[in-house]
Amino acid sequence: MMKNSEFWLAALILTLFTFSVNAQKVIFEEHFDGNELNMKNWSYEEGDGCPNLCGWGNNERQIYDRQYVTVEDGKLVIEAVKKDNKYYSGKINSKDKVEFQYGEIEVRAKVATGQGIWPALWMLGHDIAEVGWPASGEIDIMEYVGREPNTVYTTLHYPAHHGENASSKKTNINNIEEGYHIFKVIWTAENMEFFVDGNSVYNFVPDEYDEEHYPFRKPFYFLINMAVGGNFGGPEVDDSIFPQKYYVDYIKVTEL
Fold first, then answer.
1. What keywords tag this UniProt record (predicted)?
2. CATH no. for residue 130?
3. How far apart are CA 230 and CA 118, in angstroms?
4. Is 5 inside a domain boundary?
5. So which residues are the catalytic ones?
6. What is the pLDDT of residue 22?
7. What are the φ/ψ torsions at residue 36 (nearest 5 degrees)?
8. Pick from 87, 65, 108, 123: nearest CA to 244
9. Given 43, 88, 165, 172, which residue has the most CB atoms within 10 angstroms?
10. In whole angstroms, what is the distance from residue 183 CA to residue 186 CA?
11. Is residue 3 a part of any domain in this protein?
């Protein structure tokens, strides 16, 4: 007969074994600790997108400048301002530094608000320099446009459907402008499912699994930015709203 102490020891070992089997491996985790951006993970994008894609290809008004990207109290802060009759904001990416294929992506963020504001957290295929867009694929984890209160967009761009014809879901979420919210994507070789605050809002399953319909079987990297105006965020901009701040608390990617 097993002694009581032996029983509890066996139970503990079984629990630890079960936990180790079920625990998800963390692929990437960013909590924006310290007082500056971790340049091992991130790079700045700056300027107005010229000469190739002026207005960043979307007729956006902002000029990106690293001084409008800061780290404060464990948060990434991207600020948009109007100064000397020009708009400035911030944009960072993890290209060539943090790139991965598949996983559960979770982001906790607080959007900026107001007509003309367009904060986003998204991903591009690592091969964009070779194949271009939309062949690279684009995963928009979260886009918010100030002209549409209580609404978030989750979108995929790829050769068969991109731009205004992208595979997109517009979701009404009351008070999305208040406080922090958790945006999540479960990305596999077969589908992409988007969540907001634990609720599934869009499950994308392609008609065909080829580069035209599903170019999402390769590594992608992150982009975080706040645009001003543009084809999607504007075109009108309410100058009375500035300055505006967009906060990202953390990003976590775990293996499925």
1. Hydrolase, Signal
2. 2.60.120.200
3. 9
4. no
5. 138, 143
6. 52
7. -150, 160
8. 87
9. 88
10. 10
11. no
Please tell me the predicted confidence (pLDDT) of residue 68.
98
The SS3 call for residue 230 is: helix
Q: Could you list the mean pLDDT of each consecutive 10-residue stretch along the chain, which spans 256 residues?
A: 54 50 84 96 98 95 98 98 97 98 98 98 98 98 98 98 96 96 98 98 97 98 98 97 98 97
Spell out where 130-172 has E strands: 138-143, 151-157, 167-172
Amino acid identity of 6? Answer: E
User: What does the angle CA 255 – CA 191 – CA 233 come to, to the nearest 5 degrees?
Assistant: 95
Note the pLDDT of residue 20.
44
Q: How high is the pLDDT of residue 10?
A: 52
The gap between the terminal CA atoms of the chain, to the nearest Å, is 40
User: How many structural domains is the chain composed of?
Assistant: 1
CA-CA-CA-CA dihedral for 43, 49, 52, 57, to nearest 10: 110
**Cβ 107 vs Cβ 184: under 8 Å:** yes
Task: Single out the residue of 147, 137, 148 nearest to residue 220, CA to CA.
Answer: 137
Any domain includes 9? no
Distances (CA, A) of 68 to 6, 59, 161, 229, 243: 60, 20, 33, 17, 11
Confidence (pLDDT) at 151 = 98
**Is-contact 61 229, C-beta < 8 A?**
yes
Host domain of residue 82: 25-254
